[in-house]
Amino acid sequence: MEDQERNLRMSQTAGPDDNRNEDPFATEEIEIEEMVIDGICGVY
Amino acid sequence: MSAKIVRQGLRAPVNVTWEITSRCNLSCCHCLSDSGAASPGELSSQECRGIVDQLAAIKVFQINIGGGEPFLRDDFLDLLSYAHQKGLVTCVSTNGTLMDDGLAQWLSTLEMFYLQVSLDGATAEVNDRIRGEGTYAIILEALTCLACHGVPFSINAVLTHLNFSQLDTLRKMAKEYKAELRVSRFRPSGRGKESKGSLAPDKDELEAFADWLATHDLVRTGDSFFCLTSEARRRKGLDMCGAGKMTCCLSPIGEVYPCAFLQEKPFLVGRIRENTLKDLWNHSPILNQLRNLQVKSCETCSRFENCRGGCPAVAYHSCHDIHAPDPECLANLRNREGWKGSIARDMGNGPARIS
Amino acid sequence: MNAFRKKYKLAPGTQVREEDFGLLFYHRGGPRLFWVPCGRLLEVRFFQGEIPLKQWLREESSRAPVPESRLLSLARALNQLKDKGVIVEC
Fold first, then answer.
1. Hey, is the C-beta of C84 within 8 angstroms of any chain A C-beta?
2. Which of C21, C26, C35 has its CB closest to that of B61?
3. Does the interface ipTM go beyond 0.85?
4. Whose CB among B26, B154, C24, C40 lies 3.0–4.6 Å from B180's, allowing a Cys bridge?
């Protein structure tokens, strides 16, 4: 079910060459991004 | 990385703004929600609990609750407790008028809880023009009460032309209460549409505020000024519009919108009484549009990577087009006829000076 | 201790959920978000603290072979999360 939803999300933004079945992060170094949430614009 | 990811869409919002009632005992002239009387058909207690269940199930981390005045709901404390039991962190925005020792004592026992109290001026003269006569004194009593009971809180001021020169004083006041200062952006939605002329900061003030923010790292903005922020303040948030990417908004009657400032018919995502939030989040064309918003005129700007076109809500309320550039972004502020060099304004003590 | 023998739990005040890219952590001190692009290598269940990393990778993760460099990268990432107070060893 979650794979279906993922494919839906990606189909909404995917280009013609995207392979939706590949894990897009499979070959990348696992680099953590830290985000201090002062807030998220759109929230009070 | 996060910028790319959020355009593809997260599985759920990171947090949700929830206007839990339209009822308010004040009539602030800039109220983004045009609050006053309760909306007909506001969500019942049971419906609210159902929404908390949904948010917990899809692992929303935090709910930012406002209104109206949330503490006017008879069931609000129960709903807060329920949200915490379900593992959700809550951040409540209040006008402070209902604060008393009993409530402050109870709030002091909560762990998964943030509180922000609205104060729009460092003096009664300024604050009361916006929030109503006598409110300044009441709010300060609330701040004292909260501080006495050890409730952590922030003071939230919407940046306006009226309080612009009081920011340093507000910062000092917050420090005295051991609170954080949060300065948020004025957006001409709700009653703000009519008060824009008298309240919206002008371009010189916004540019000076951008300089001031760069040297006051501890002042929060809720990321609402991402289009003005210098490189030094980046990484205090997503640095772009979060609507549909990391957040969305629930109205008192269960309507879902991309953000609190786009609660207009063209942006109605759906109704929680008819669809689950999960379905709406995953399948809404409106949210998908916000995730991939293209502001073509901004793409060649040197600051585009900093702001991605700015706030679509401000663009919409100013130009009726969410694809229009944010008229208050730093590049647009500087790109105006007759502007030469940089203008620095002394934030508290006198007229503008040119550097 | 060998990094792959370690077990981890969430630190107090931390939540985690699975995303398409991997894991998204929320720590309410801040609050802060941590985006961990580990793909399907780890799941929320790993942070119940019952299974060491090596066993998890062998038994629970995707059956497709994973380059050693990526496994080492994963171990480093977990160590970083521990240093930042997001997870704790158990």
1. yes
2. C26
3. yes
4. B154
